[in-house]
Amino acid sequence: MIRLLLLFALTATPAFAQDFCFCLRCTIGTHRSFAPQTEAMTPTVPRGLCTVSERLFPGTASPVPGDVVLYMNQTRGDVDMGRVVALAGARVQMIGGQLHLDGEAVATAPLPPLTLQRRTDATGARPTCPADTPVDAASCTIAQIRETLPNGTSYAVLDLAEGTDLDDTAPLIVPPDHVFILGDHRDLARDSRVDQTAGGPGFVALGNILGVLESPAPYLERPE
To answer: Which of 12, 83, 105, 209 is the most exposed place for a label (fewest CB within 10 A)?
Structure first.
């Protein structure tokens, strides 16, 4: 399994962030660096945080639900990051913003709201805040929920607003040799809820998974 290591968060211009998201091992071809350019995996992996993963041959990954993976987005033709919530054969549906697996709602619990400082991050952007946040506010808070998968893995997800487009989906059956990916910042992520025909990644093939975030990581707990 590929290991992803969190390095450091850069607070600079986008060009500077890209120039310095690297590792020594990347220069000899055994590892790859990656800094997400969106907030899709906040709070676990904030936008602009540099990560490094070992390289592996396509098709050798074997993720489990709860893993944060680096994968090739076939729609865009670039590398992306998301959380595996279901494997092949599972029935996945979002109802009112809550994840359902095989007809059962995934366990959730409230967490304290996440406070984000509205400073420019490593990509040169500011965090997305709720619509009622004053323009000149130095920070904002976003509702945060702990989600626990059937295998006991839990993590925080963010809820920017209620009733957004992807809060409700039709039931989706994960095909063989694929996984279902969700972003932790649910209202900002374009993940397996969005089919490739609509510009999303759709189901992610095992052969397109390039790395798995190593635990422990922020906002991630695994069962003993």
So the answer is: 105
